Amino acid sequence: MYAAILAGGVGTRLWPRSRQSQPKQFSDIVGSGRTMIQATADRIAGLVAPNDLYVVTGLPYAALAAEQLPEVPTTQIIAEPSGRNTGPAIGLACVHIRQRNPQAVVAFLHSDHVVLDPAAFRAALQQAEPAAQAGYIVTLGIEPTFAHTGYGYIKRGIPLEGLSQDSSTVYSVEQFLEKPDRTTAESFLEEGGYYWNGGIFVCRVDVMLEEFSRQLPELAAGLARIDAALARSRDAADPIFHATFNEVWPTLPSISIDHGIMEHAQNVATVPLDAGWNDVGSWDALEAILEQDESRNFVAKGGLLPLESHGNIVYTDKEVVALIGVENLVVVDTGDTLLIGDKQQMQKVKDVVEYLRSQGRSELL
Amino acid sequence: MYAAILAGGVGTRLWPRSRQSQPKQFSDIVGSGRTMIQATADRIAGLVAPNDLYVVTGLPYAALAAEQLPEVPTTQIIAEPSGRNTGPAIGLACVHIRQRNPQAVVAFLHSDHVVLDPAAFRAALQQAEPAAQAGYIVTLGIEPTFAHTGYGYIKRGIPLEGLSQDSSTVYSVEQFLEKPDRTTAESFLEEGGYYWNGGIFVCRVDVMLEEFSRQLPELAAGLARIDAALARSRDAADPIFHATFNEVWPTLPSISIDHGIMEHAQNVATVPLDAGWNDVGSWDALEAILEQDESRNFVAKGGLLPLESHGNIVYTDKEVVALIGVENLVVVDTGDTLLIGDKQQMQKVKDVVEYLRSQGRSELL
Fold first, then answer.
1. Domain boundary pick from B216, B247, B278
2. What is the pLDDT of residues B212-222, one digit of tens each?
3. Of B325, B345, B352, which is closest to A342 when you measure between CB atoms?
4. Distance between CA atoms of residues A204 and A102, nearest Å
5. Is 0.85 exceeded by the ipTM?
6. If contacts are CB pairs under 8 Å, which of residues 320-359 in chain B contact chain A?
7. What is the pTM (predicted TM-score) of this model?
8. What is the share, in percent, of chain B residues with pLDDT greater than 90?
9. Do B246 and B313 belong to one domain?
């Protein structure tokens, strides 16, 4: 199995730790000692060889990716000249990997997700492999733990027989559903058979590129030109390839893989995933990821000295953070900035970022 | 008029900004651009010439005092080899100043107080001067603004006639009262004629030294030896003086001026002071000192970006402190430490300091 790690985004929801100069996937957000993209690569070690690992990221971050994943051949760190959403990014990965193996099975992973149980994650990818070999695009269906309204959902269909040792582990997909309202989300959980769509999937590159041709012909034509240029070049560093790539890339439509491909793809399957998955959508997510310490606080980084203070999430470079009589705060300290917020309101970090942007304080973003 | 600024203490109540390496009097706690001891000197400028200003501080801080008050002759920065409380400190200042003028009138000031109305403060000192000349020890009686239980009180007696242009500005002192309980403090305010004892007073050096002889003969004998050594020396830097000083000083009893002298002094008077006095006893005191900004927060230092956050007191070196949905916090950031606390519980800073001391983290104190 091959893998392609998507590492193109610059998340602002984990500001001030996630910055334009170092997006969250290149930071150690959970205090594990490894950055999120390193943890992503670690998670599939043993299942995917470093030599079969690809990274798609923005041009400004290619060096950072190469530095953090020295085991990945640098020609497999694919730099997008500009962000064109997940559709072109995945198409580009397919084009590169097909040079190696025209029917390669690839796991498409995000670089900024946390998985508490990597073994269960690898097991799900392995369960997806036979169906992917058989021509399915197999999404991982994340077992919902509550009625989240911030994710799309996958409604599973019937079990697909003969595609795994345990027939109940692979299902057809009846429908992809948009982010629901609260009531709808609750009904999904009550009814069962619905999963969060985490955007993680496994498929053959030729199957995916065929879907591009069928559903997004304009994008597919652009990818075909890139593909042809790559075939004529020595490698992805070849100037001949780059001339074509840089000419074609900006003309590609910016579209997500969900809207562009998945929702109307022909053979879609799903494998349930119950592995403590978390996309760390805001700082308060650390509460579900970190172990609570003996004082009932959550420390990702830094020395904590809590006095009658509980339920706080702390990420700092400080030797000592003294808390006195405070509860349910998020405290994030970087060199130049400090964020202190009510744990329930951390989605408003985007308003802070928006304000700083409006004030031209780009050095802080 | 002469002045002696007492700058010997190492306050822990404003940790982590007040540190052993730089006690609060040598820090700019209120964000005025001047340290507290500088603000103390500024406050009496025009009333006391720099050449008539003395500072009594601990040996480790003499260089800091000289650096921050370059206008004060270095021989007038008096370094105590060890802390012996306010009694010996004031006695030492008297001994030094009497070399210049045996009947000098001296204002004894603390280096770590804030006064919002310096003109009113100077006026009170000026009102105290004739009574001090006449042989009184004149304490400033701070008009209480609420029933504080953390200060001693001064009960005023009758107006002293003929000692000021306005006869109502100088009163005899009927009694010095220990820190009262809540009910007693409230009765003081209701009854009227009670003042907070801020430990600020004006007197002649010979009057004070006479009180030492009368009430603390052992201490007075030690001071007399220091006095004699100083008289024989060229100046306070003379090694002959230092030999005696270093021999005598550690033998002096450690006692406060309040208990040792003031409570039983013969001629004590008081001048009311209504000048926005504040001894910055804990971080929440900044609320009474700083102007509230348009977001209803109190910023001593650092850039603040508050989102639905009010009533917070912030002292940091950060370009941006983003607050989201938090109220009535104190936030103090230094390089290595961060303090976040509920404004109502800031007296517990001493518990944090105590804990760090018990853990041997003296580098953080």
1. B278
2. 999 999 999 99
3. B325
4. 8
5. yes
6. 320-326, 329, 331, 333, 336-342, 344-346, 348-349, 351-352, 355-356
7. 0.90
8. 89
9. no
